[in-house]
Amino acid sequence: MSVSKRTYDAVIVGAGGAGLRAALQLSEAGLKTAVLSKVFPTRSHTVAAQGGVAASLGNSTEDNWHWHMYDTVKGSDWLGDQDAIEFMVRKANEVVVELEHYGMPFDRTDNGKIYQRPFGGHSQNYGKSPVMRSCAAADRTGHAMLHALYQRNVRAHTQFFVEWVALDLIRNANGDVLGVTALELETGEISIFHAKATIFATGGSGRIFYSSTNAFINTGDGLGMAARAGIPLEDMEFWQFHPTGVAGAGVLITEGVRGEGGILRNGSGERFMERYAPNLKDLASRDVVSRSMVTEINEGRGCGPEKDHVMLDITHLSPEVIMKRLPGIREISIRFAGVDPIKAPIPVVPTCHYQMGGIPTNYKGQVVLPKDGDPNTPVTGFYAAGECACASVHGANRLGTNSLLDLLVFGKSAGESVVEDFKAGNLSLKPLPEDAADVSLARLSRLENQGDGVQVADVRLAMQRTMQKHAGVFRFKDLLQEGVDQILKVAEDARHTRIQDKSQVWNTARQEALELDNLIEVAKATMISAEARKESRGAHVRDDAPDTPEHPNGRDDNNWLKHTLWFSADNHLEYKPVQLKPITPGVESIALAKRTY
Amino acid sequence: MSKRTVQFKIYRYDPDKDAAPYLQDISVELEASDKKLLDALVRLKAKDDSLSFRRSCREGVCGSDAMNINGKNGLACLTDVDSLAQPVTLRPLPGLPVIRDLIVDMTQFFKQYHSIKPYLINEDHPPERERLQSPEEREELNGLYECILCACCSTACPSFWWNPDKFVGPSGLLNAYRFIADTRDQATNERLDNLEDPYRLFRCHTIMNCVDVCPKSLNPTKAIGKIKDLMIRRAV
């Protein structure tokens, strides 16, 4: 198979929010940039974000970045790095206002400013009362944002390679990153994208779970590529289960519904969140709300004939508010739950939604790994941003609306870092190793020639069932241990997948097999990291680490206030310290405390 | 809904092996949880992995899985499979070159989208904070900004079939009006100049197929009418 070669200053993999924001930075600086995306940019999963993007603009209620920082650190259950969190919340106003200038159609307040709504875990005065911090375009914020970013890139003449699938990361003997191999879907052509800088903005991998709000394309491609190339994955045990996925369908219902006044009710109609989070109630942090819902269901207080879900009720809101602020949710409810939320409550269950972990980076968007005693040594030529990266701002649990903020801030920051490194002469086009494409060619050749084997769909389903059963909202020691064995077995099967379709033209069977390789890396990382972390923290809650006076909420800061690093080659784990110190002298570290809402 | 078997006729064409396109008769047993046409397609693909179609969000917001369903354009993920007459006939979107099976080459569609300068034009130095816009001004963008670029409308439009290279098409024109209607945009005249041409705008003959098929319930014909109004008002 012949391999063509293309040379760029920078290659960006992924054209969702983070990739497009990074691309703008590079295009406007005049760098010769290629943006690879396996889907047309506006089909990336950022498009599905609904409720808003956090920024302490204070348009409707008093707010400041100190409060936002506190909420984010607390939300992360203190696993977030406070330098990265300070960086993100202080950049929030700038990146949101920029988007407005790009043309994003935010909703407006009566005085013409960006409309903001309350969201889970966001508060005034260090947890005292809800704050209006989520900047929203109805309940279609991600759609409005992604289109505005794409449009701005059209203006900046960014060069896209649309419907190209990145296959593998290219590193030299020194470990420097030299670009990626990629496959053009329409022709089956394999190409090396040789670049001075490579930015991964490949999004999440929620498709490792059976029930997920994530799009089909969220297959952890960047994580898989990085892991196979020897880059560890950080904090992969932390997965967010969004409280309100449509029961049965998995489609997301934004937390903005509760921000606008929606209430969760159990089988007897009780507003049960009052018992679990007396202060913020339905607007407590997502991990807390999801666990409360599952507890209600497990204790027999669910709704429906199987008592297997709860209800999200907005029937007390005026139809005008629903039509104006939540039109997309109404559409989704009617189409996927068969109920009009103006008249009847929406059946919901916690559904896998977001990966807090990812490729380890610093707040500049540089990918870092342990080397010569420094756990955060930058990898030359490699950057990452958005959901695929772990900066880490979300720690053990992400706050709603901080994901869109993350991709804007760190997309821009990664772009800026590349431009700075480029201008400083720190980036050069290093010679490609002879075998630069060999890993990819071997994977393709294996698929082409696999005789006996297993169906891709069957292996994928086995993986999703295993993850769902063994690494869900609540985690159990025994199930985690069994889960490790099972996922390693599934991973072995994934090495023997077989496809019937051998066409060179738009071969989606081949694409799905290649994506499965990436999902499997993420699934292994998740299960092994989760089994090893013997405490409860944020979204990772174990039966053998309960709430005790010595370990409030089951959290064990003496032993586990540290980031996990999983290495694919031999499945071993290392740990690195959490950065508790903010960037700016004088900005105080948020002191460790028990999380209550 | 319990388990049931659904019959399909699906347009198949793989240029690597087929001399010509054909309609494949195929049926699939659906699980109780399979509700949408996309669920059925995913089941079919598990049976025959060579069946090719685009899909992503599965909730009608990314615009990937547009196709011609029993003669009408729509999104597979929003279409209730049990509402369809059998055999369910699936074809690629009409009027665009077929790459393979249900996957069309959308180059011409996006070329028209790009031709309307789909980005805000405002040459003033941006203020420190957001530009102000009243809720009423913002409301003008409703029904416009929600376009998902699925191409259901443009590929249902006879004028676009005849002149895909010259007529912008309903989606592109809806997006053109989205920027004209935005009080923050300063390029209305330039945008109208860009459309003042016997083909680009005026090939719309208000057939309204676009309105009929839009999965987001948008109304490109109305937006086109508003552009025409502005052009007339500008001329007198």
Please outline the helices and strands.
The complex is a heterodimer of chains A (597) and B (236).
Chain A: E1 3-13, H1 17-28, E2 33-37, E3 53-54, H2 65-75, H3 82-102, E4 116-124, E5 129-135, H4 141-155, E6 159-162, E7 164-171, E8 177-184, E9 190-200, H5 221-228, E10 233-234, E11 239-246, H6 256-259, E12 263-265, H7 273-276, H8 286-298, E13 310-313, H9 319-325, H10 327-337, E14 346-355, E15 359-360, E16 366-371, E17 374-384, E18 389-390, H11 402-423, H12 438-449, E19 454-455, H13 456-470, H14 477-494, E20 497-498, H15 508-532, H16 557-560, E21 562-566, E22 573-577
Parallel strand pairs in A: 1-2, 1-9, 2-6, 9-17, 15-18, 19-20
Antiparallel strand pairs in A: 3-5, 4-5, 7-8, 8-9, 10-21, 11-14, 12-13, 13-14, 16-17, 21-22
Helix pairs in contact in A: 1-4, 1-11, 2-3, 3-11, 5-15, 13-14, 13-15, 14-15
Chain B: E1 4-12, E2 22-30, H1 37-47, E3 66-69, E4 72-75, E5 88-91, E6 98-100, E7 103-104, H2 107-115, H3 135-139, H4 158-162, H5 169-180, H6 188-195, H7 209-213, H8 220-235
Parallel strand pairs in B: 1-5
Antiparallel strand pairs in B: 1-2, 3-4, 3-5, 6-7
Task: Kindly describe this structure.
The complex is a heterodimer of chains A (597) and B (236). With 597 residues, chain A is an alpha/beta fold. Chain A is built from 16 helices and 22 strands. Chain B folds into 2 domains: 4-104, Beta-grasp domain (Ubiquitin-like (UB roll), Roll), CATH 3.10.20.30; 107-235, Orthogonal Bundle (Fumarate Reductase Iron-sulfur Protein, Chain B, domain 2). In chain B, 30% of the residues lie in helices and 15% in strands. Chain B is elongated and about 60 Å long. The N and C termini of chain B lie far apart (60 Å). The relative contact order of chain B is 0.13.
